[in-house]
Amino acid sequence: AARDSLLAFRAVNGFGEAFSAGGKVVKNVTGFDLSKLMCGAFGTLGVLSELTFRVVPKPERAAVLSLRGASVAQGLSALREAARLPLEATGLAYLPRGALPVTFGKLAGADGVALIRVEGAVEPVSEKLQRLQTAFAKFDPVFLDDGLGASLFRGIADGTFLALTAADLWRVHVPSSEAENVLKDLSPVVWAADAAGSVLWLALSPGAEAEAKMQACVSRAQGHAMLLRSSLSTRASASVFPPLDVTRAGLTRSVKAAFDPSHILNPGRMYEGI
């Protein structure tokens, strides 16, 4: 997540005051971790003017193994299993046939394709791929060209594969073990799963009824959802973020008041009246 790479920042708050937080090195951070707070504030707490990121070298190789014979249930289960293996997989995604671009159609089996990405030095990555191929031999595993694998995961990370649908687009975070239940309950028009199913991109039919059903389903799964794009009718009735309970709403108002008491920075961007 971006918040895990942001070490420090400078910003201007709602008082017109310049302030800074964090440190130039990882161990030099004390007090409240305001960097993470600002990452999720959508500009409602301050105008960011300078950012300090932690960076790492680009891996020598990023390789992807596809499990073409895996159904939705089998694929999501395999991804959770891969997450438990000591191989430090950096990508665990499932694309149903309907979410795959035409140029990638050959990757999918009857239902779709599960994708496992590993990164690092050339030799260790080769060893990891061999272990994965052995662990998931029953799924007809196939190694993807490195460029093709990178293209697929870029599309999954930013929702590109669902961009052309006219349905409302939601990004849902749930425990990976709940992903299949959420998909069955909501029957999205088209969808994609990332992070072994803990991140779901869902294209749902427009309307307040579908939004209410989705929020109830996600709440039962102890997750949360964000509306990324919608029809005007949905936007008029649906919130971008799920409603806050009384305790969290109070905390959110208090934090907003501390940084921007006059509500001049993106008012209502996240929650109405905040």
Summarize the structure in words.
32% of the residues lie in helices and 25% in strands. The chain is built from eight helices and eleven strands. The strands form three sheets. It has a four-stranded antiparallel β-sheet with strand order 5-6-4-7, with helices on both faces.
Write the layout of secondary structure elements.
Elements (H helix, E strand, L loop, with lengths): L5 E7 L5 E5 L11 H6 L7 E7 L7 E7 L4 H13 L6 E6 L15 E9 L1 H14 L5 E4 L1 H13 L9 E6 L5 H8 L3 E5 L4 E6 L3 H13 L3 E6 L2 H6 L8 H14 L15
Antiparallel strand pairs: 1-2, 1-3, 4-6, 4-7, 5-6, 8-10, 8-11, 9-10
Overview in brief:
By secondary structure, the protein is an alpha+beta fold.
Order of helices and strands: EEHEEHEEHEHEHEEHEHH
Q: Outline, from the CA principal axes?
A: globular
Q: How is the biggest beta sheet arranged? A: 4 strands, antiparallel
- Helix fraction, binned, reads 25-40%
Strand content: 15-25%
Strand ordering within the main sheet: 5-6-4-7
Between the first and last Cα atoms, what is the distance in angstroms? Answer: 25 Å
- Count, helices: 8
The total strand number stands at 11
Rg for CA atoms? 21 Å
Mean pLDDT equals 89
Structural class: alpha+beta
List segments where confidence is low: pLDDT < 50 over at least 5 consecutive residues.
none
